[in-house]
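For reproducibility, we list the full input for the FE2/S2 (inorganic) cluster complex.
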Amino acid sequence: MNILIIGNGMVGYKFCEKLVAKSNSNQFNITVFGEEIRPAYDRVHLSEYFAGKSAEDLTMAPASWYAENNITLHLGDPIAQINRTEKTVDSHKGLTVPYDVLILATGSAAFVPPIPGTEKNGVFIYRTIEDLEMMTAWAKKAKKGAVIGGGLLGLEAAKAMIDLGVTDTSVIEFAPRLMPRQIDEVGSNVLKTKLETLGLKILTNTNTSQILGDDAITGMQFANDSKIDVDMLVISAGIKPRDELAKLSGLTVGQRGGIVVNQKLQTSDENIYAIGECALFEGMIYGLVAPGYEMAQIVADNLIANINNSPLGVRSFSPYDMSTKLKLIGVDVASFGDPFANGEGITSVAINDTNKGVYKRINISADGKTLLGGILVGDAEQYNMLLQTVKNKVVLPPNPEDIILGSRGGEEVAGAGITGLPDDALICSCEAVTKGMICNSVTENNCETIDAIKKCTKAGTGCGGCVPMIKDLVTHTLKANGKIVHNVLCEHFNYSRQELFDLVKINKLKTYDEVLNMFGKGDGCELCKPPVASILASLWNEIILKKGNDTAQDSNDRFLANIQKGGTYSVVPRIPGGEITPDKLIVIGQVAKKYNLYTKITGGQRIDLFGAHLSDLPNIWEELIDAGFESGHAYGKSLRTVKSCVGSTWCRFGLHDSVSFAIKVEERYRGLRSPHKLKGGVSGCIRECAEAQSKDFGIIATEKGWNLYVCGNGGSKPQHALLLATDIDEETCIKYLDRFLMFYVKTADPLTRTATWLNKMEGGIGYLKTVVIDDALGMNTQWEADMANHVDTYECEWKAAIETPELRKRFSHFVNAPEEKDPSAKFEPMREQVKAKDWK
Amino acid sequence: MIAEATTTTWFYACNVQDVPLNGGVCVKYNDVQIALFHFSRRNEWYATQNECPHRMQMALSRGMIGTLGEEPKVACPFHKKTFSLKTGECLNSDECAIKIYPVKIEDGKVFIGVE
Ligand code: SRM
Ligand SMILES: Cc1cc2nc3c(=O)[nH]c(=O)nc-3n(C[C@H](O)[C@H](O)[C@H](O)COP(=O)(O)OP(=O)(O)OC[C@H]3O[C@@H](n4cnc5c(N)ncnc54)[C@H](O)[C@@H]3O)c2cc1C
Ligand code: SF4
Ligand code: FES
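The corresponding predicted structure, in tokenized form, follows.
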């Protein structure tokens, strides 16, 4: 049977793939005609071309794939005519080829509204690689850009303009809001504010009346008579199905375009099918890739069933879900199910957090049982879950709002998790893979990683939006199968941090390689090196850059500084308790001036100097150390600062000398390597000016002594510290702190702050008290000795680095030109100082 | 992949001991920055472009190296995108692939091949 496909776009290609995957060779004689000069490429990820992807990277399958599968591919040769009576097609280059079955996969073109001036140079559409090539060339001299269309594609085009360096870009939308088909007005406003922070100007309710300029565009005029200057314009105002060939050959087309198809995707001629963006099904064009793939699958399945006389019933296409998530733009936007559902009894719950720029809306059925659809702007993490909840009509929990608010009682929201989904829930809609298929490949084929699942089922290989869900499904299935989902570090270590901590200690291992040889496998990675290096540092307190452990340190630890935008580093000398002499302040000023560093008072009561070149770091630190400073460990997972308030030395309310105590504590624990960073605070009275209760440990003066609080946190999930002991003296306070910190260092998972560690601890603060105060684990003597050892062996690692030639040598950008600095580190002036040049 | 018949020029980058064990350094070749890695655990040498395609930062030489299965890789210090040291392909997201260069060692000297 001769199958001829017109159009080699995403859907045309997918059809070929599906057909050859399931048919026996020689059953079909497949020919493809494509108008573009390249084999089908991934149009969905077209914008990544600007991020450096080449045409080859985007290719769905190279020309050799078609040859290997006996598919005759004619590229750069569009079909000019279909002769339905003879059942042949004529190509532009003059070929005439017969067909038994003809597949139209001609896709769509950009819709260009009839505005005078669209033919001018500098006006582009955004659909093919050629369009992108032309845009790239033009953008080099363009300064002011505009995009007509504030929909899905328009916003993507606007982001592309920014990526091309045309940062002064306006988005012009005719409708009163952005993405009118996907989100409501409130959502649009939130999105607008977010996009404006990216530097885009958003003009809604704006109708372009003319494009100005002689040969090339110079501006745009709007219906309200206002004008803007523009030297580059992208029109992205919607799509127009490519039905011209179908129309010419007398097939039925829709009034507003599109080739009319039935449930089998047949056109008005039963031997001709239309799939993808050119097909009009029940009055609807599906401008997304997933429904196009579904159409390809159905036609391929039916043709194969037909030729094999398979008893399987004919598969048919039904209205397809148009849920979408916006990609690339740097703002999460998603809409799913029916985003605007309203009607009798239907309720909508919405949260609009203008502070965080997050808007979420869900629409709930009249009986309160099912989710109909919704909108997410600013935070679309729940998109997949919510989409599945809609698609599978999962019964909602009693308080449906919990699913967007997050459960507040600490317990998982029942009914809304992956466990609640039926086996036939479609997880990957691009490749039509269900929950059952994924769980099966875990159980039957031992696919335990995302990559294995991708290989085995193809799930997650399309748009990739389902990958987080696949991950959850894998973990969940492994657990359900009784496989321990061990809290292991990574593929190289089958141990949790705590287990490894004990093993390293008992075996007295001193280097990363020893630990890997003895307890790991393979050659390590960025997930296991830092925690192991941190364990070694916590246990032995040796200079972290020695013994070949330097390259096992996270980059910031390896260079004893935080890497910042542009590749320069920040310098933070320790200023214990925030107390500093005028002389030291002067030195900081002098050093900053000499090395042209931006200086800022930090939130931790000290001074950060930003913008240091790698090769300047040792010189800067040498000068600081000469003046009596030492490392502030701002780069390490270790003690940062102990904030203080001025206390009884000056403050009329001060009960004790909080500054002296803060300095004492900071100097005791400085350099202590821990699972995450540690911060402390000491306040001189309950007015709490040092904010001690928001720290990992906080000490507050009372009439009788000190109250000790632990496990507070700022950051994204702030949490107040809890009271561990009341009215204790300094000595007891330090003893408790020694124990508390060592307990944490020994048992917490990597990158877990004390607050999260406590939250996960069975028995909570009550248990912690019995350990730290009543010695429930019998470890306290040991921990106090460990801490004493830490205090005795502490050394400033920056001092060691500058004094050890082979360590110092590592601080240069070019190994073969150590005196030269990285020419790509660029600065811009700002308020009499400098800032890092923005990255692209 | 198609082997191309271009001529490779080898330039002297540095000495073996200038590169930290299981780590990288940045080598300057005219205006090009090349990240050179000594994966001493596997007794292998690799060279790639120094620029991370994610945010165009000249930083891969300061990244941490390791393996994913058998594939040697480097993680960018900025946002931990990882790239294969063998093929340059991005392994944990869809950043574009980085350029790789051949490396050879002669008499304790490291040479990198450029076209
Ligand atoms: C400089 C500073 C901001 C400022 O200009 O004030 C700052 C800057 C950074 N903070 Fe911070 N934080 C600074 C005070 C804070 C505070 C306030 C405080 O300490 O009182 C907090 C909230 C309190 C807390 O930690 O509980 C804070 C919570 C964070 C977090 C979130 C931690 C969490 O538990 O959620 C991160 C991210 C992380 O560590 O993973 C972070 C990470 C960072 C990093 C390291 C991000 C990075 O990797 O580049 C920034 C490095 C700057 C640099 O190169 O030196 N920073 N950061 C402050 C330095 C304090 C200091 O002297 O060391
Ligand atoms: C920038 C951009 C971003 C997108 N983002 C997303 C997204 O995030 N998610 C999503 O689901 N979808 C997205 N899409 C839409 C998606 O790309 C399309 O749905 C998909 O490409 C449709 O596939 P198709 O094969 O029907 O059409 P196309 O890919 O357009 O292919 C049709 C092909 O047929 C050729 N052709 C036309 N007429 C003839 C003829 N007479 N003879 C021979 N060949 C002919 C055309 O030249 C073209 O190569 C995006 C589109 C663009 C442009
Ligand atoms: S709040 Fe964010 S941006 Fe500000 S310093 Fe901390 S990490 Fe950097
Ligand atoms: S710059 Fe390399 S990962 Fe972001």
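Chain A touches chain B through 45 residues (CB under 8 Å). Chain A has six domains: 2-109+241-307, 112-237, 427-487, 498-547, 554-631+796-814, 639-774. Both points were considered when choosing residues for closer inspection.
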